[in-house]
Design goal:
The chain is mainly α. The chain has helices at about 5-20, 25-45, 55-69.
């Protein structure tokens, strides 16, 4: 038996309220999330560094540089 996870329950509730606000229409829900993401990106542009190289690849590159020294 799994114990209730308060954080997951809160996430489920937020998702449910969000979906209900858009009458459970997946297209409207997605459009809203995309709009929120765009607003977030504009607000934080230049303030955060997004790493696009996977961690595994970065580690391999670092190891190869260390081995050549």
């Amino acid at each position: 038996m799994m114990l209730p996870d308060e954080i997951l329950e809160e996430i489920y509730q937020i998702r449910e309220e969000h979906a209900k606000a858009f009458n459970y229409d997946p297209e409207l829900i997605l459009a809203d999330w995309l709009e929120k993401r765009e607003e977030f990106e504009k607000e934080w542009q230049g303030k955060i560094k997004i790493i696009k190289t996977p961690l595994k690849k970065r580690k391999e590159n670092r190891d190869s540089v260390e081995n050549t020294v």
